[in-house]
Amino acid sequence: MHFPEKSPRPSIYYKYQVFDPWLASEHAPQSRQVVTIVGAGPAGLVTALELARFGVQSVVLNSELQVSQGSRAIVFTRRSMEILQQVGVADQVLENGLPWRFGNSYYRGQRVFRMEAPQDEDDRYPPMTNIQQQYLEEYLLHACQANPLIELRWGNKVVGVQQHTDFANVQVDTPEGPYQLETQWLIAADGGRSEIRSAMGLKLEGASYEGFFVIADIKIDLPYPTERLAFFDPDWNRGNTILMHREPHGIWRIDYQLPPGETPEQALEPASLKERINAQLAMIGHAGIPWEMDWSSVYSARTLTLPDYQHGRTLFVGDAAHLLPIFGVRGANTAFQDAQSLGWHLAMVCKGIASEKLLRNFSTERVTAVREIITESGKSTRFMAPPSRGFRLLRDAVLSLSLTQAFVRPLYHWRTSRPHEYTHSVLNSPDDDNALFESGPSHGAPPQNVRLSNGDFLLDHLGGGFDLLYFVGAYSTSAKNTKAFDTHQLKSIPPELLSVIRVFKNKDLPIRVIAIGTSRSAEGADLQIEDPMGRVKSRYGITKSGGAYLLRPDQHICARWLQLDAMRLHSTLQAVLDQ
Ligand SMILES: Cc1cc2nc3c(=O)[nH]c(=O)nc-3n(C[C@H](O)[C@H](O)[C@H](O)COP(=O)(O)OP(=O)(O)OC[C@H]3O[C@@H](n4cnc5c(N)ncnc54)[C@H](O)[C@@H]3O)c2cc1C
Questions:
Q1: pLDDT of residue 521
Q2: pLDDT mean by block of 10 residues, the chain; 579 residues
Q3: For the chain, which end, N or C, has fewer CB atoms within 10 Å of the first or last residue's CB respectively?
Q4: Calpha distance 70→83 (Å, rounded)
């Protein structure tokens, strides 16, 4: 029998809610589930919410009775916020989190590099927002609880899986004993120690770096803005690196590297933690300020992935699929992208709109993305914690040169998590005008946000299905002198394009036509976005009315045309269904 912890986890700032376990004896026998998600972490919860947006039901099993222990992932990128906006929790994160965009690297007491993450008026969200993972999970849980298509089962631990041709049989252990569950699709979102991965005998590929880092969250009043602080080779921890981040509720995260040979157990001894945190505070000129420990843990950097995220009826997302170093804030930020991607691919299959072959695309795209992330994060990891004498010599040379030579300082850049561009996706249209565009997001890229004339943002209106952004050019005379559209104005969506859209709507493909550019009604559009000054148009590199972009449900670009015609639209949409 599985007995999850019933006492709330300890925390200075977060009040853990303990949920009642879901017991089979209290529910009527159930038929085969469509989707079962194992794990109520960021990956599992976002997948459930994404599926629900397409009308697909899911059951979420979680072995625990409460959200995760400790702050864990604390830095969320702009792209993550855009994904969280899609599932309805970005406002809460923004309201309660701490936005930031600068990072500072120090060596020998001197600031040698100041990183500035870009931000302009077209960005709805800051480049980074700090909030503890418990809050994020709480907001996602509330969204799931409010959704009738999602059933949460607390205290349900998956202990075995048998796969069959068209379903999986899942053994679930609970406080009253085990039960069986059948499901058409099983999503393994059960974290870094995924029991499903182990039970299936699947091996992660990649590198594990030597050396450990301590994560310590302390409550302290420090007079610094929310910026990333990195200290290389400080006097109290020679050869190693220390990171500091401000979190909400007066908490500071201090990450420090351990000297070789020290074990995690030794490092987590209260006396050792106290001595090192005091040394760090003294180094930054705040010795003696009172502080209190909230949570501490030890981690080591790993760049590991499964080579395939689909195994029969089981699909892997988040830490169950890959383990990434926290330098560059990649764990949860990558999990959101996995979940968003799996959500729409699987929904199309569950609803019978596309064949199961479409899931191959999910796996290929996400494995490729994670391999790119691994290459990038490997560079950051080797700089933060050099794995060999050679890397250390090189890194130390950069450190000492940086005191006097500005040209080496950009090497301190920490290569933050960013969305992958699915440049080689099979969903990208082979016969569109992608190569002819001079600007704008290209094949496979995430969309560019744009502030609209009414104060909204473009992405507020996109997502949840395929979006055809169709640029029309009926402009008012007051816009004549702007860089708005050509004068050969197309005021409505051509009927032949609308016929193609109707064909695919009749096949249940979720697709909308969004007319951009006119302040008047563009007949046939599902939605109209006013762009009187041509800002969206110029950001998207559109030169004439009749130009168009096709965005996938995850908002990535799969086709763009300088001049769209019905035949090319048809072949692009058909290609998605033919996968
Ligand atoms: C100690 C620690 C510190 C971290 N610090 C950072 C950081 O500073 N920055 C950063 O970006 N990332 C950090 N991470 C990584 C980050 O937390 C993860 O990348 C992120 O949580 C991934 O989300 P996930 O949903 O894939 O997995 P998880 O959040 O691990 O969620 C897995 C879920 O599965 C459930 N589960 C597990 N096994 C079973 C089972 N058999 N049956 C049912 N349910 C099960 C668990 O209860 C949990 O709800 C840290 C992780 C850890 C462990």
A1: 64
A2: 96 98 93 97 98 98 97 95 98 98 89 89 96 98 98 98 97 97 98 96 90 93 95 89 95 92 92 96 95 95 94 98 82 96 98 96 97 81 77 77 73 70 95 96 97 96 96 57 51 91 97 86 87 93 93 97 96 92
A3: N
A4: 23
- Distance of CA 268 to CAs 46, 91, 108, 215, 251, Å? 33, 36, 27, 10, 19
Residue nearest to atom 9 of ligand 1 (CA): 73
Burial code of 433-457, b = ≥16 C-beta within 10 A, e = fewer? bbeebeebbebbbbbbbbbbeeeeb
**pLDDT score at 416:** 66
Cβ-proximal residues to 226 (8 Å cutoff; 6+ apart), any chain: 98, 99, 100, 130, 245, 246
Each residue of 25-55: b (16+ CB within 10 Å) or e? eeeeeeeebbbbbbbbbbbbbbbbbbbbbbe
What pLDDT is recorded for position 559? 98
Nearest atom, ligand 1, residue 338 CA: 26
Residue keyed to tokens 């639209």: 569
3-state helix, strand, coil in the chain (%, to 5): 30, 25, 45
- Would you state the pLDDT for residue 505? 97
Position of tokens 């972490």? Answer: 41
Which distant-in-sequence residues (6+ apart) come within 8 Å of 385 by Cβ?
A: 209, 211, 213, 240, 241, 257, 301
Cα separations in angstroms, 255 against 105, 178, 258, 404: 14, 40, 10, 27
Smallest CA separation from ligand 1 atom 52, residue: 72
Structure tokens at 110: 């001197």
- What residue owns the CA closest to ligand 1's atom 29? 41
Number of helices (H) and strands (E), helices first, in the chain? 13, 26
Scan for tokens 């590199």, then name that residue. Answer: 541
Cα torsion at 378, 381, 383, 384 (round to 10°)?
Answer: 170
- Compute how many other C-beta atoms are within 10 angstroms of the C-beta atom of residue 520: 14
Atom of ligand 1 lying closest to residue 196 CA: 41
Out of 68, 72, 304, give the residue to mutate to test ligand 1, the one with the largest number of ligand atoms within 8 Å of its CB. Answer: 72
The residues pairing with 296 across neighbouring beta strands, listed in sequence order, are 216
Nearest to 142 by CA among 85, 99, 88: 88
| Exposed/middle/buried for residue 397 (C-beta within 10 Å: 0-12, 13-18, 19+) | exposed
- Residue list, ligand 1 pocket, CB within 6 Å: 38-44, 61-64, 68, 72-74, 133, 157-158, 189-192, 195, 215, 297, 299, 318-320, 326, 329, 331-332, 335
